[in-house]
Amino acid sequence: MKGRFDLSAYDNGTQLLMHLVVLLACLVASALVCFGLVAVSAPFVLLQWIGFFTLAKFVYFVVAYVLFGGSFIDPLEQMYEDRRNRR
């Protein structure tokens, strides 16, 4: 699946960096939703953390597939394959 941006022109390290920037943005957005918009009360703190990581993971995978056509695992696998093939 091709995304909106063609990352094939970039090396694997740059691709990974782009994915990490998107992941960080998704973590910040999820934190604002889970902790900023919902009042923190003692019994629900664990649920907020679970919701935060679930929402961040879901948003990241949706955004990564729309923008890049894959997740950060793809450049990591490619880096591993390149290293293995060099030996």
UniProtKB/TrEMBL annotation:
Superkingdom field: Bacteria
PROSITE patterns linked: PROKAR_LIPOPROTEIN (PS51257)
Keywords from the UniProt entry: Membrane, Transmembrane, Transmembrane helix
Entry's transmembrane regions: 20-46, 58-76
Protein name: Uncharacterized protein
Source organism (scientific name): Labrys okinawensis
